[in-house]
Amino acid sequence: MVRNLPAVTQGPLPPLIGRDDELADLVALFALGTRVVTVLGPPGVGKTALARHVAARTRGAVFCDLGSARSAGDAADAVAEALGAPLAGVDAEAVGRVLADRRSGLVVLDEADPVLEDLAILVGEWRLAAPDIRFLVTSRARLHLQNEHCVDLHPLDGHHAITPDMAWDLLSDAERRAACQLTVFRGGFDLEAARAVLRGPDAVDLVEALVDHSLVHTSPHGPGPPRYHMREATREYAANQASPWLLDRTRARHAFHYLQVGQRRALDADDPDGGGAIEVLFADRHNTADAFGVLADPRPTDAVALLLSLEPLWDARGASSVDLDRLREAVHRFREDPFLHVRLLTALALALGPADRWQEAVVHAEEALLTGRAMDGLNPEMHAALERLASSLAPDPDAATRREMQLALRLLRLAVRQGDGFESP
């Protein structure tokens, strides 16, 4: 069963100094019926703080951080998460339906720059699907939508926005190197991960120094250790200062860290009391996906194991459309390795069920069955799981058949995990 976990909280409101007029203007714009407002300004000028205060004063507001998004699918996932909607198979159209079910409300889309062109299309569609929903966007550029109202946020008199290049000049060489290395994270990181990529006894001190310089920020968090993140403008600037050699080496460290912790977290999440582990898997899902991309060519078996360490998360919350697309790509990429192919087909078929894509699930389950039966040296558990799967397949399964197919796929997944599904030599 897919559990609909609450949306991520944003923690206490940041101070808002000297922006009372802008706050009153934004609240008034929405009260007068403005549907889309974009707050424009350079990094560090206070767009996020202003948007959060507007949300705090608006009934039915949700706050969505798009800093980790890289595609329209990522943006739809992030909005679905903020709305507390099930993620199973979620896409832009599904988000539109969720928004339409809300009688009124405000959706804040913060740090929209990485997906600005995609977001313009999405907001245009959602605005039509949900006539009572308003949108507040923060970015460095406008969406160019019809009837979009733009508010330029300038530095206050006597104050200057703290831009990444200004802060950069105040850093030591070691702090600059650390800032470059921390750009490999997407969606934030904890101190264990920072130690893994920075190496050395001063890793924690370097992170704290970057926090003091406002280049790294602490993130609101639930279960698990404290998390940190870079705002997208900072991440972009620091990555441009790094040498390709340094970034490649750091990406390798990043990938091996998540490979090491991925299986441990998956085991923790399989525990009946593993709700906290599910949240940790969710928080690092972007890092896990990026690490999979690094490992896929040199270490395919490890890469698949890392990707599938997210299965407890998909079981609990559902696999989003981005997750499903990544699984489809992996199925195609590793089709020449029968063992990896069966493993991925099983995961994809299991993930498609909660997304209500049963016909596609049956197709992949049948392919897993045919591939598995053609393999040599299977152990009795895998033989039994394959035969149970064979008896459960139907072109258009009813509810009972769907449950039996899901159970057979779970047994096949377990058989493949245990001893790789083969007889011991």
Task: Describe the 3D structure.
The protein has helices at residues 20-31, 47-56, 72-83, 92-101, 116-129, 164-168, 173-182, 191-198, 203-212, 232-241, 244-270, 275-283, 285-295, 300-307, 311-317, 321-333, 338-352, 358-373, 380-392, 399-417, and strands at 36-40, 61-65, 105-110, 133-139, 149-152, 189-190, 217-219, 227-229. The chain is α/β, with parallel strands linked by helices. The strands form two sheets. Strands 2-3-4-1-5 form a five-stranded parallel β-sheet, with helices on both faces. A three-stranded antiparallel β-sheet has the order 6-8-7. α5 (116-129) links the parallel β3 (105-110) and β4 (133-139). The radius of gyration is 23 Å and the shape is globular. The model is unreliable at 1-9 and 421-425 (pLDDT under 50).
